[in-house]
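Lab notebook, page 48
Experiment: co-folding of the full assembly
Goal: obtain a model of how the components sit together before planning crosslinking
Operator: M.T.
Materials (sequences as entered):
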Amino acid sequence: MPVQAQQGIASPRTSAGLGGLAPALILIGLFFVVPVLALLLRSVTDPVAGLQNYAALLGDGTYARVFFNTFLVAFVVTIVTVLVAFPVAWMLAIMPPALASLLFSIIILSMWTNLLTRTYAWMVLLQRTGVINRALMSVGIIDQPLPLINNLTGVTIGMVYIMLPFMILPLVGTLRAIDPMTLRAAALCGASPFAAFLRILLPLSLPGIAAGGLMVFVMSLGYFVTPALLGGTSNMMLAEMIAQMIQSLLNWGLGSAAAFILLVVTMALYALQLRLVGNSRATGAA
Amino acid sequence: MKLIFAGILAGLMATTAAKADEMVFTSWGGTTQEAQTKSWAEPFSASSSIKVLQDGPTDYGKLKAMVDAKNVTWDVVDVEMDFAIKAAKDGLLEPIDFAVVPKDDLDPRFSNENAVGSFYYSFVLAWNKGAVSGEPASWADMFDTKKFPGKRTFYKWSAPGVIEIALLADGVPADKLYPLDLDRAFKKLDTIKSDIVWWGGGAESQQLIASGEAAFGQLWNGRVFALEKDGADVGISWNQNLTAADVLVVPKGAKNKDAAMKFLAAATSPTGQAKFAEASGYAPINTKAKTEMPTDVVKGLPDAHVDGQINLDMNYWAEHRDEIAKRWYAWQAK
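Observation: model returned without errors.
Model output:
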């Protein structure tokens, strides 16, 4: 968001129309900048002035584990989402338009269903006495229920499902923009389908993967409901810990500090990605 | 800056600010708040012409934000007792006006200067009869994975209950529980850690037991009561049942304090308490309430199981809340 705003100001045409930007700037200032500053301020003043909240967070093994969990889950979810989304996006990109838009609307429709409902549905499917385990046991594939819930597996399944549209959408855009002739040319030059994928399709679709991947990763970092319901206590993520600190322990200083660290790390990753993939392509495809 | 932030927050939450002849009651939602509305709010409105608006769920962070921003939109809030003791110390609560709220018949275990009892409950041992062979009879059985295999479910959050259960199971006598030996409790909990499924809310605990996902567990007695009422095949053991309470508090700076005090008088009256107990299966905090209740309802209350009943020490918890929470979540995350 700040990057786009800067681009707007820097472009020559808008210097005259800066006044027109005022409502947007006030909105961003009031609802984004001020709260973040208030958060930062609280993290170094509550309960007393100083850096004790940050010292407590960074010097404690439990919090370190929660930070690690948060990034591990976000990373695993992003990788799995890319792996699942790519074939779907490719199919949507090459399919007849009428059929593609039908499938597209089905995928979008899932986003309109309440998050909590979808997560509870996964609970019913994944638990030890759930549909999946019962079905597998009744056909004799397994005789002990698989541990699909209250662990990393459950969190990953539930979150990938929710994140898929955010990966598929940018990917389809990128894949559609690739000229199919490049693949035909590769084949004519003797490339195997796998080589054509690896050396033509994958590099060309990288901006879409990067844009979708970043979005999924960043959204996953702050996720709350799904990890809380499908994960176990040893998979606790930062958002859940912050909610604990704010809601029931009333330790707002510590909660603010944790939230601020998450924000800084996320922004650093964003900056890194801009540098690696290139500014215009990442934001453009998103 | 702090104030601005808190002000914005409170402003956003001020959707239910009540007018002069109105007040806002906040509780945990679900069947409990429904019963509170029917047993307390509706009769109170009818007799006093003060309208009671319902809000929820209770959120300690919101309560603090309102008091900090001096924009309090909740007048009476149902909270856990250990929180109430701590919140009073932090200056978040109004004192109760005992000139308006009759004190004499209130169970002294669950009332103090800043809070009157809402209801009290027991943690009991409940099990799914289809998933357990035999009858677990004590907390020690919940730690005996040989005799009673299967998943067991406990309350997920750092709160009075599980630590005490672990200590009792490890042989600590009830009168020697406090101060809590946390090392010993966690060591005992370690022995069954991989068999524990945590429940975060009442509905989840019911779902786990009713489906057999967890064979047995530590549940609120009212939730087992509701399961039995629905015809679920559950067993219950009251042996060493552990009492805790919800209390009603008035946040500091509540706009309709007078109405709030009158509401508290109605809610804690024998009739209000009797009606609520009948609807919820939780126990009344007014000692006269039982005379107004059907005998079969009285039989199912924690009141009928004072033999071996243990009172969780809310004052101890209020004092050590933060340090226990830190150890608790560290242990859980391991």
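Interpretation: The CA atoms of residues 82 and 181 of chain B lie 19 Å apart.
Next step: discuss with group before ordering constructs.
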